[in-house]
Structure prediction request, 123 residues.
Amino acid sequence: MQTNLIRHFERFAAVAGVSATYARGDDSVDLTVTPAQTAVRNEDASGISVIGKRRDFMVRAVDIKPAGAIVTPEPGDLVRVTVGSQVVVYEVQRLAGEDCYYECDNLGTYLRLHTKCIDREAA
Prediction:
């Protein structure tokens, strides 16, 4: 069953994956990420619930090696994706008291990174 799940993620990445750059400090690596999104519920100062959306990315754990060695995602890492004539910059962030990523399968082959758009640059 685990093998079938990994094959599903691989097919999904082949169809919906986009090229991106993963960066930590001055080190970076090009890889394929599969965009997703997560609904986030926050309460403002007056107690009103506000629902927003965050961009998530699914990625093979072994591809996250900005300095040549595999690393675990950390808050502050960046994912850069070219969209048309812009490079959209996403920062890896913790989500609602959770870690900044979670494993999509029992073996940790694929990770889902929680990010927030922080900048748009000319391509």
